[in-house]
Design brief:
heterodimer; A: 306 residues; 6-stranded mixed β-sheet; 4-stranded antiparallel β-sheet; B: 253 residues; mainly alpha; nucleotide-binding (chain A); ATP-binding (chain A); transport (chain A); ATP-binding cassette domain-containing protein (chain A); ATP binding (chain A)
Chain lengths: 306, 253
Amino acid sequence: MIEAIGLTKRYGKTVAVDDLSFTVAPGRVTGFLGPNGAGKSTTMRMILGLDRPSAGRVLIDGKPYTSLDRPLRTVGALLDAKWVHPNRSARAHLEWLAKSNGLPSRRVDEVIDLVGLTKVAKRRAGGFSLGMSQRLGIAGALLGDPKVLLFDEPVNGLDPEGILWIRRFMQGLAAEGRTVLVSSHLLSEMALTAQDLVVIGRGKLISQTSTEHFIQEATENTVRVRSPHSDKLGAMLVDKGFTVRDGEDGALTVSGASSDQIGDIAAASGVVLHELSPQRGSLEQAFMQLTGDSVEYHAELVETGK
Amino acid sequence: MTLLAVERIKLFSTRSPWWCMLLALGLTAGITAVIAANWGDSPIPVIATVFTHSFGLYVIMVMAALAVTTEYRFGTIKSTFQAVPDRTSPMVAKAAVVVLLSALVGEASAFGSWGLSWLLADDTSQLALNTANDWRHVAGVGLVYGAGALLALGVGALVRQTAGAVSIILVFALVLESVVGFIPNIGDDIQKWMPFTVANKFVMGDPDLSALPEGAGPPTIGDLSPWGSLGYFAAIAVAVYVISLVVVKRRDA
């Protein structure tokens, strides 16, 4: 269980994380979702006691990270797979980590085996591919058999096989009753991995809810209707309690009604329809809509020919 | 104790400390061998066998600075603080391991150089370690290396970048300390309190300057006694190191 209460981080005048409160429950994969620069990594560093919050606090099972005894036994984290000395062997890297928290070197062999790096354990970590580095990072996170796990963008840059492996792995960890928080800037990825979502933008909490609910809410289903009598039809639909907006080229965009309902209403009052098509919002569109105002670095679309 | 083991694993599982130690030993003993072999007919004094100790000191300080800056460079400092969140204890453990190792390298370099001089010099009648001063000239090298390593660890932890930390140490020791001597009127007074100048007096100096044998090199400068000089150098090292501990504790990792 991770509990953030009013977590705030300022760098000079920039507010990276702004009064952020959320909880991460055990037994589920919780996605920590937000565009690049939203403050996900900063929040994760604060959870681990690496960065000091400007205000607020974050507790792990009721305690701040810095007061945990031998913390690797409680919290495992993979924030950056490249946090390894390139000339140190994978085994030596895990060996010193294990030693620091009083874990036996038998455990080092176990986690190496678990992530499938046994054959390359003696090789220098600097020569590892990104996928192998991620596996080494995960091995490090699992060393202390922790109840709480944090992963920062674990699938970034991985091939589909690697993504699938990590996704299944995280779900497996949650199924064992652990608390798993995994950050990502891709809703489509989180839709497949996480059961719960904590969504942030510009350091502020946008939503904490189940993934299913978030997607349902976010991807509004609309129906596009084109008719020569759109004024009349629009008025009737509004009377029925549906939301009607004027779309492009005189078409109407109706939300809250299915295409069946609209067709029935039109037929009952003899209104001719030229088009009746259900529109489904995509996940990415929904995500952009929700966090659109809170994206840190906008790529301005260049308008041409005008 | 476990943290000492952690820092030992970290230090010895990469190659640069081994290279630095070999280089420190090779530079000091190698150049001393050339000096001893070419000494000529007069008896070689004990002090001549440690003329080269400062070469090794700089290399050892680079090793000590690297021990902490590479942790910042490769992000392993974050894993370290994740594993031991109080931050001070792993930094102290690192200092204990690095300082002890540096002192051992210092002793190996000094006694190695002295031993080679026995083998290579023509007249070794003055080379036996008879007096407390003789012992200080040779065995004192280890103490200076240890204190220097602590200073370098402090600088490394404050600066966090290898290039920055190494430049500061080398420019200070090799350039700044001699250049301040050129400042009119006050230059000499400043220079004799510069840390590396003072440290040099501990190894090379003598309470009775007239007692120094012929060929003992340029006179050491400074107002402190040799042991007072070591105390002064060590105090500066401890001060910089303690400041670095406070900064590391407060700063975002």
